[in-house]
Amino acid sequence: MFALKESSPVVVKASVAIQRPSEQVFRFIGERFVANYPRWSPEVLEVKQISPGPVRVGMRARQVRVDLGHRTESVFAVTIFEHGRRICFEGMSCPYRCDYALEEIRPNHSTRLSFTFELPRVELYMRPFETLIREAIRDGVERTVGKLKSLLEAERSECVPGHRPALGGYGDIFAPARVLDQARE
Known about the structure:
Order of helices and strands: EHHEEEEEEHH
Strand order of the largest sheet: 1-7-6-5-4-3-2
CATH class: Alpha Beta
CATH superfamily: START domain
Distance between the termini: 46 Å
Number of domains: 1
Number of strands: 7
């Protein structure tokens, strides 16, 4: 018989220095997450808060995204909310974890953002593609911190909810998939 070993978790971390105060960075990522998340993650077609109240521990949201042409929907919850320092999300409908940690470099001037994405396991049917999955996650994590840096440093000191600037140097590689999905609906 073949013995199938467990896959090891996929844990990828990237960090970047952002020339903005930690309070502004946290407001953008944490307090205004629902409005701003699609701005730094263009593969997110829709995000909707499904529990009442402000972003806090226990808040739940649903997202629809297209990754590498594959459309998925998931529900996630805030599991850590340390005002001005850290916010963490965990998938409820499928296992994953996104952790945004902030460290002030120079008070009222610059912040180190560390973003960690964790996939606790790679499902058996996806194991032949595990190397590609790990590389795609690594690229996505690095793109996330780069996009957050670009957006935050381009913003005025007060982040404007609902404002959606151009995607900058990364381009929107998922636009064709979005158009196809809309045509199918």
